[in-house]
């Protein structure tokens, strides 16, 4: 019987799910047919108090940012998070026990911080030695809840995140720096950009790709409107994700530049390959995909707390700029149109940060822990 690897994620934004999917693809590429890999949304049946937050996450980051920021920073302390976990343990205990019971595994891999305490505790209650690996999906300023000593191994995307883990008492030997997990075939699909440009009837003008994440969050619509009505010598692709309202509003617009508007798509690599510049919120997955696509980056929005460090990471590396208003975005586009050499420097800096094989690196770590599980595998 194959050993089973369970990848846990939660639908608070699309990044956690995308990370889990990328790791699953990496495992299958390196070890085809060797493992029974299952992706589990572990937050689907959580208690009301936790579910209420996860279900309304887009609302918090779009319309109640001050409150979200207050909550993030108030809880972003090691002692406070321990106290918070102790308080929530009665609520999370049954959910964690149900996950372990309904989804038995030889290795658990978490892509969401809410599993970091509850799953290891559930395993201990059952006297199980099942390895638990956590993948940090924030580049720099992730919440302290990511950095737990209960995990058998912690996988982080950057050296900055590694420093945060060490600061929060995670032993150095338990930490691996792999980059943010993105689809293993992403870099290869980016090379289809020329074909995508022809399919979209794009000409030789600068092509700007505007993205607001899988849920189309943040200041996507107002930024798209400013670019579309600017009359600049460029063409615009807007990906609205699951935000149907924004998509419909933009489709009624009478743009002064060629514009293509999409909802949720599965061809982001090809669209990045067709683009010359990406304008995006500071989500870690999209940023790291832009690195792989060698795109200069304009960051127009950031979720308070966990994405603020991503902005610094991009700007300090020279891979992009922070433009928190639509007018600042327009100003930067004008500057790059007037000074292509400056845009080329940002493109080169972006390329230097690319880690296209991140999911494969993580897959190798998971495989190493799976090999430590004795044969025959646990009875199911």
From TrEMBL:
Family, per entry: Belongs to the glycosyltransferase 28 family.
Domain Diacylglycerol glucosyltransferase N-terminal: 16-182
Gene source species: Candidatus Thermofonsia Clade 3 bacterium
One Pfam family cited in the UniProt record for this chain: Glyco_tran_28_C
A single GO cellular-component term on record: membrane
InterPro entries: Diacylglyc_glucosyltr_N (IPR009695), Glyco_trans_28_C (IPR007235), Glycosyltransf_28_UgtP (IPR050519)
Molecular function GO terms recorded: hexosyltransferase activity
Protein name from the UniProt record: Galactosyldiacylglycerol synthase
Domain Glycosyl transferase family 28 C-terminal as annotated: residue spans: 224-342
Gene3D superfamilies, per database record: Glycogen Phosphorylase B
Entry's localization field: Membrane
Alphabetical keyword list: Glycosyltransferase, Transferase
Signal peptide, first to last residue: none
BP-aspect Gene Ontology terms: glycolipid biosynthetic process
């Amino acid at each position: 019987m194959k050993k089973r690897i369970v990848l846990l994620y939660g639908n608070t934004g699309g990044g956690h799910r995308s990370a889990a999917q990328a790791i699953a693809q990496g495992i299958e590429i390196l070890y085809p047919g060797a493992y029974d890999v299952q992706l589990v949304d572990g937050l689907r049946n959580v208690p009301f108090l936790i579910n209420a937050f996860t279900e309304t996450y887009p609302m918090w980051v779009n319309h109640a940012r001050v409150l979200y920021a207050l909550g993030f920073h108030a809880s972003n302390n090691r002692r406070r998070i321990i106290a918070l976990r102790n308080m929530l343990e009665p609520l999370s205990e049954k959910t964690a026990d149900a996950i372990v019971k309904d989804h038995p595994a030889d290795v658990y891999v978490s892509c969401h911080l809410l599993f970091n305490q509850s799953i290891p505790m559930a395993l201990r209650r059952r006297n199980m030695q099942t390895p638990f690996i956590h993948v940090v999906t924030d580049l720099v300023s992730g919440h302290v809840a990511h950095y737990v000593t209960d995990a058998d191994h912690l996988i982080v995307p950057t050296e900055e995140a590694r420093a945060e883990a060490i600061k929060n008492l995670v032993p150095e030997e338990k930490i691996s720096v792999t980059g943010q997990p993105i689809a293993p075939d992403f870099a290869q699909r980016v090379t289809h950009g020329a074909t995508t440009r022809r399919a979209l009837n794009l000409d030789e003008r600068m092509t700007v790709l505007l993205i607001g994440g899988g849920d189309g969050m943040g200041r996507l619509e107002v930024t798209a409107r400013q670019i579309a009505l600017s009359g600049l010598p460029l063409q615009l692709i807007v990906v609205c994700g699951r935000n149907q309202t924004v998509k419909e509003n933009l489709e009624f617009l009478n743009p002064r530049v060629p514009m293509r508007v999409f909802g949720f798509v599965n061809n982001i690599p090809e669209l990045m390959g067709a683009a010359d510049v990406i304008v995006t919120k500071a989500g870690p997955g999209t940023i790291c995909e832009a690195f792989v696509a060698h795109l200069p980056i304009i960051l127009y929005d950031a979720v308070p707390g966990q994405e603020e460090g991503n902005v610094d990471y991009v700007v300090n590396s020279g891979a992009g700029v922070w433009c928190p208003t639509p007018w600042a975005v327009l100003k930067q586009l004008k500057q790059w149109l007037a000074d292509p050499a400056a845009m080329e420097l940002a493109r080169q800096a972006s390329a230097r940060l690319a880690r296209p094989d991140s999911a494969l690196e993580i897959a190798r770590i998971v495989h190493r822990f799976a090999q430590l599980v004795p044969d025959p595998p646990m009875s199911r």
